[in-house]
Design brief:
Strand content: 15-25%
Strand order of the largest sheet: 4-12-11-10-7-5-6
Number of helices: 13
Order of helices and strands: EEEHHHEHEHHEHEEEHEHEEHHEEHEEEH
CATH topology of the largest domain: Aspartate Aminotransferase, domain 2
Helix content: 25-40%
Oligomer: single chain
Shape: globular
Largest sheet: 7 strands, mixed
CATH class of the largest domain: Alpha Beta
């Protein structure tokens, strides 16, 4: 009965999940599902991983929330760990990817003003990008279908064609305070950025004294086989926006900034729940599991297993056009509607999602086993056969 009390802001599958363990989910009828969605690239260690459960239990008995008026050990420890593992100097904590991107927008705008040029406020984003649904993050999202009912949006945002160096060169100017890029476009269809494009964006940002921002909300925290996606492309941005996998299922977001972009002063920005002791304790547990227990080391091997299986399917089913993405953020580009396959797979107990109309997105837990990969590919093939 309570379903009628929820706003209709989501299109949901006809299922009610009540339990999960590892890569498996169970509905209220007891049916088992193999999960290649992982909460949309959130549950990087699967469901109810013992490390996360232990961190939640231990910290919840000590301190859950105290606000950013005070220091807490878990927050400073997590900040130190992220700085140590990255090429950046400071961290701002929030609760989500959208909030992380909103924070980056404010840093960029303040940076532009700090140069002494009051006109340096424009942000360049990519066509087909996705950065969130709040008003600021929606404005820098390069898809009009998400924006049309919420105009007017904030000003000072220009879009360029993704991976088009000449278009970027044409539109960047002395008024540009930042360029924001997803190293792998997520909602836009699982499309890798060209390394040459990222290198040129870095060069142009330095030339025009602008900040280079990477939105790694979906593609970061181990998805590519490196902790940060920028490491897989060899281009270090000024700002990295993180969330999703950072908490392994618990809400937490973060913005990493280098010295150039570390310009916030008290009062410039804030987040009531950002960096709360509980979230930081969980994130520390996740990062330790990924980096110290060799979860990251297996991601590229699992990518190869997936790609080998998908390439075999592509040789048999002509509607599979190509595979894109990196690590365990993969996209099957089709010349048919992805939704048909997503629904067929769901009926057979495999959870997958689309990314745009014609792409199947595969973002399973990073600790998925080889047997689970092969089982999922087999179910996927069964779905293909019934089209």
């Amino acid at each position: 009965m309570g379903k009628k009390n929820l706003m209709e802001s989501y299109s949901r599958f006809d299922v009610n999940f009540e339990k999960g363990i590892g890569t498996k989910l169970y509905d209220t009828e007891g049916k088992e599902y193999l999960d290649f969605v992982a909460g949309v690239a959130v549950n990087c260690l699967g469901h109810c991983h013992p490390t996360i459960v232990e961190a939640l239990d231990k910290q919840s008995k000590k301190l859950i929330h105290v606000s950013n008026l005070y220091w807490t050990p878990t927050q400073t420890e997590l900040a130190e760990k992220l700085v140590t593992l990255s090429n950046h100097n400071t961290v701002f904590f929030c609760n989500s990817g959208t909030e992380a991107n909103e924070t980056a927008i404010k840093i960029a705008r303040k940076y532009g003003k700090s140069t002494g040029d009051s006109q340096k406020h424009e942000i360049i984003t990519m066509e087909n990008s996705f950065h969130g649904r709040t008003l600021g993050s929606l404005t820098i999202t390069g898809q009009k279908k998400y924006q049309k009912d919420f105009t007017p949006l904030i000003g000072g945002v220009n879009s360029v064609k993704f991976n088009d160096i000449s278009d970027l060169k044409e539109k960047i100017s002395n008024k540009t305070c930042a360029v924001i890029i997803e190293p792998i476009q997520g909602e836009g269809g699982i499309i890798n950025a060209d390394i040459e494009f990222l290198m040129e964006a870095k060069k142009l940002c330095e030339e025009y004294d602008a900040l280079l921002i990477f939105d790694e909300v979906q593609c970061g925290i181990g998805r590519t086989g490196e902790l940060f996606a920028y490491e897989s492309f060899g281009v270090i941005p000024d700002i990295v926006c993180l969330a999703k996998g950072l908490g392994g299922g618990f809400p937490i977001g973060a913005v990493l900034a280098n010295e150039k972009a570390s310009i916030f002063k008290p009062g410039d920005h804030g987040c009531t729940f950002g960096g709360n002791p509980l979230g930081c304790a969980v994130s520390l547990a996740v990062l330790n599991e990924l980096t110290e227990n060799k979860v990251l080391e297996g991601v590229k091997k699992k990518e190869a297993i997936f790609k080998k299986g998908i390439e075999k399917l592509a040789s048999e089913y002509s509607f599979i056009k190509k595979i894109d993405g990196k690590g365990l953020m993969l996209g099957l580009h089709l010349d048919i509607e992805a939704k048909k396959i997503v629904n067929k797979a769901f009926e057979k107990g495999l959870l997958i999602i689309g990314a745009g109309n014609n792409v199947i997105r595969i973002v399973p837990p990073l600790n998925i086993t080889e047997d689970e990969i092969n089982k999922g590919l087999k179910i996927l093939e069964e779905a293909f056969k019934e089209l």
